[in-house]
Amino acid sequence: MGTIRLTAAQAMVKWLSVQMVEAEPSGSEAVGHGAVSPSSSEAVGQPKLERYIDGMWAIFGHGNVAGIGEALHAYRDVFPTWRGQNEQTMAHAAIAYAKGMKRRRAMAVTSSIGPGSTNVVTAAALAHVNRLPLLIVAGDVFANRKPDPVLQQVEDFDDGTVSASDCFRPVSRYFDRITRPEHLLSALPRALRVMTDPANCGPATISFCQDVQAEAYDWPEAFFEPRVWHIRRPGPDAGELARAAAAIKGAKNPVIIAGGGVIYSGAEDVLGAFA
C-alpha cells in the first residue's frame, strides 16, 4: 500500500474534497456506503455525483491559521474557502445552505480557539435541533501542552483535559478531539456517516488541536480515493401507513401536516398527487 506525506490539516482538506453524494435522491440508493470513482459512475449511466462538503467557511486565528489555513490555501482550486465576519453567522449560512440543498449537500466551518469556537455553539444547537448537517472544525489547545495556556484559552483549573471546544458536546451528533494526526482516519468517516444519516443527521464537531494540524504523517493513498455516500430513504412501516390511511378515510375534513422528511427524500410530488 502506498502512502502520501501530508500534514493532518492537508489530509483533512484533501479527504473532504473527494467525498461525493448523488445530486438527487434515487430509489435505487443502497443502504451501505461504498467507494467508487465519480468518472466511472457517470460512464455507466449512474446518477450525477457532486461533492458533499461544498467548501469551508472560515475565520482565522492562531488556533487554525497555520495548520488549516495553510491547507485550505493549498487546495483552494478544488475546495473553496468562504471568509466569514462572525463565527455564528457563517455557521448559520452553512446550515441554510444544507437546508436549501435538502440535506444532500453540506458545508464546513472552522474557527480559532476560545471565544471564536464558542461563537459557533448557538448555530450548532440550531443544526442539532433541526437535524441539519454541519461540519464544525474547531481549533483547540496544543496537544503537547508545551504552550499552556495559549492566547484566549478557556482554562479549567479542576480538569486539564477540558477546553472551550467541550461546549460542543451537548449540541453535536458526533464529537471528536484530534490529538494525533492518524485519529482523522476514523474520525472523518464517522463524522460524515452521522451527517448523511437521515435519522441521526446533525452537526459533527472535529476539535482539532492546533499543533496536530501542522504535524506530518504518512497517510495511506487509499484514504483519499473518491467515496460516494448514499443517503438512505427508509420506506414507511406498513402498519403505520395502513393506520394513517384509515384515519384519513374516516376524517370529515382531513388535513395533512407534512414534515421536512418529505422534502429531504424528494417526495413532494408524490405527496401533492396524493393530496
UniProtKB/TrEMBL annotation:
Q: Which GO terms describe its cellular component?
A: acetolactate synthase complex
User: What InterPro entries does the database record attribute to this sequence?
Assistant: DHS-like_NAD/FAD-binding_dom, THDP-binding, Thiamin_PyroP_enz_TPP-bd_dom, TPP_enz
- What Gene Ontology terms for biological process does this UniProt record contain? isoleucine biosynthetic process; L-valine biosynthetic process
Q: Which chain regions cross the lipid bilayer?
A: none
GO terms (molecular function) for this protein are: acetolactate synthase activity; flavin adenine dinucleotide binding; thiamine pyrophosphate binding
Please give the Pfam families that the UniProt record associates with this protein. TPP_enzyme_N (PF02776)
Looking at the record, the residues that make up the Thiamine pyrophosphate enzyme N-terminal TPP-binding domain are 81-152
Superkingdom of source: Bacteria
**What protein family is recorded?**
Belongs to the TPP enzyme family.
Which protein are we looking at?
Thiamine pyrophosphate-dependent enzyme
Organism of provenance: Donghicola tyrosinivorans
